[in-house]
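Q: Hi! First time doing this. I have a protein sequence and I read that you can turn it into a structure. Is that right? Here it is:
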Amino acid sequence: ALPISCTASVPSAYSSWLSIVDTKAVQTNITYSVAPNEGFAVREGKIEVRTDLSSEIVTIYQKGVEPVLVLSKTSYDLKDAAAEIQVDVTSNVNVTVTMPSVDWISEIKSKATSTNTYNFAVTENQTTETRIAEIVFSNAEMGVKQTLKVVQAGKKGSDSIRILAIGNSFSDDSMWYLYDLLKQAGYKSIKLGNLY
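A: Yes, that's right. Below is the predicted 3D structure, encoded as structure tokens:
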């Protein structure tokens, strides 16, 4: 078979990212160049191939960039004291921060930090119960989401007490009065146990 002479061209609508490297081709070999697709959507381009007898349109599809959302830290385990926490967000999409419906965590808005660093204030946990909340970083349009889990321990100290008595009827009798004495002394959380 004799080589067939053909020409290839890219319509101007696609020429910003798609180009022919060699304008003449022999038989079926056409070399073209594609610039990186920095958008998120798949894009479509066309190359028109002509010979003396016919023409064909070749369609090129190029995948877009995958959306990325990464947190520098995904959880904090805090003591009962007030604290400030920080998380760095690496993302190629706009990020929405959804705060939990609790009154003990708030975002600290500061001009001194970069737009990819988020700071949060956590108030002191004055109860004896551990508390948990989640801060969500997301972009709903792109379907990406990451969660920062915040766990704060309850207070262990002067306002709570746990006593286990090991003994007989004498320890049983003392436990009977101990609860009221500890309440009068100001303890808010009292846990008493008796083991025979």
